[in-house]
């Protein structure tokens, strides 16, 4: 089911990257500390997507024939790398269209705009992003407490705006909470969400630049899915283990995917 013209127009007109005037987010006036003010007013309430029962129905119906793949895992385990690898596998081996989204993208877009930061650096795995991570997480949590799926919806809105086509598969590269999995599961009732848990040892993650940081690595954003069931465990220790894992993922993407699979 295609989205109505009115929905697409309203969606595009609300994009934080396309508005003609600055967006005022719920933060205090002191930008040097990146602190959150829970009592401040915000235009995010107006930007929350979508609004109106008819528009919400159109938005949900738009995704009902799309297969969602959720990726979760610790910092520096290689979530983005696996997402890109899987994207290429789907297009080259399965001959299907695919797109990658990040739940963190809406908050990073808004955070970058508010503090005049480099969005592409925040979207990367750079030291630049790590420098702002703690402040950005706290800032985003203040918004999430009002609406647990707001960033999931906004990430899909950005996909509608930015993609020239509707993909057959949507890869969510950074699921962090059970509510993320529940939301994307709810969009396609016929085909179950495929949850891939990416695993890499602390030694391997350390070689990729990971250093344990109290307040980040023991926070909800890193630990909320530690005990949540997954469908396939993807071992991202080497090219060999990743290739073997992706063979299992391809089988899981078949018409009758086996549930609760694990690679070894």
Give the tags.
264 residues, alpha/beta, Rossmann fold, 12 helices, 5 strands, 45% helix, globular, disordered N terminus
Q: What do these coordinates show?
A:
The protein is of the alpha/beta class. It has a single domain, classed as Rossmann fold, CATH 3.40.50.300. It is built from 12 helices and 5 strands. The chain has a 5-stranded parallel β-sheet, sandwiched between helices. α5 crosses α8. The longest helix has 18 residues. The termini are far apart. The N terminus is likely disordered.
Summarize the structure.
The protein has 264 residues and is of the alpha/beta class. It has helices spanning 5-13, 44-47, 53-62, 79-92, 104-115, 119-122, 127-144, 150-162, 178-187, 202-207, 220-223, 239-252; strands at residues 67-73, 98-101, 169-172, 194-199, 232-235.
Helix segment count?
Answer: 12
For the biggest sheet, the summary is: 5 strands, parallel
**Low-pLDDT residue intervals, each spanning 5 or more residues:** 1-47
Rg of Cα set: 19 Å
- Tally of domains: 1
How would you write the strand order of the largest sheet?
A: 2-3-1-4-5
CATH topology group:
Rossmann fold
The chain-level structural class is alpha/beta
The first-level CATH class name:
Alpha Beta
For CATH, the homologous superfamily is named as P-loop containing nucleotide triphosphate hydrolases
Helix fraction bin: 40-55%
Distance between the termini: 40 Å
Q: Mean of residue pLDDT?
A: 80
Strand content: 5-15%
């Amino acid at each position: 089911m295609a989205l109505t013209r009115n929905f697409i127009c309203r969606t595009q007109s609300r994009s934080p990257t396309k508005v003609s005037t600055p967006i005022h987010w719920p933060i205090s006036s002191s930008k040097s500390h990146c602190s959150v003010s829970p009592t401040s007013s915000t235009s995010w309430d107006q930007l929350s997507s979508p609004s109106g029962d008819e528009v919400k129905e159109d938005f949900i119906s738009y995704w009902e024939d799309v297969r969602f793949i959720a990726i979760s895992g610790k910092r520096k385990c290689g979530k983005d790398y696996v997402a890109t690898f899987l994207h290429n596998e789907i297009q080259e081996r399965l001959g299907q269209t695919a797109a990658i989204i990040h739940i963190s993208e809406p908050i990073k877009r808004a955070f970058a705009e508010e503090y005049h930061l480099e969005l592409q650096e925040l979207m990367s795995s750079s030291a630049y992003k790590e420098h702002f991570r703690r402040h950005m997480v706290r800032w985003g949590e203040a918004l999430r407490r009002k609406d647990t799926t707001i960033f999931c919806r906004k990430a899909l809105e950005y996909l509608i705006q930015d993609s020239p086509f509707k993909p057959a598969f949507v890869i969510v590269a950074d699921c962090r909470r059970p509510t993320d999995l529940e939301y994307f599961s709810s969009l396609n009732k016929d085909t179950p969400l495929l949850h891939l848990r990416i695993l890499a040892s602390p030694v391997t993650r350390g070689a990729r630049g990971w250093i344990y940081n109290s307040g980040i690595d023991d926070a909800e954003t890193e630990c909320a899915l530690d005990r949540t069931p997954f469908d396939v465990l993807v071992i991202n220790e080497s090219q060999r283990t990743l290739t073997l894992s992706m063979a299992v993922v391809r089988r899981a993407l078949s018409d009758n995917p086996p549930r609760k699979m694990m690679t070894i």
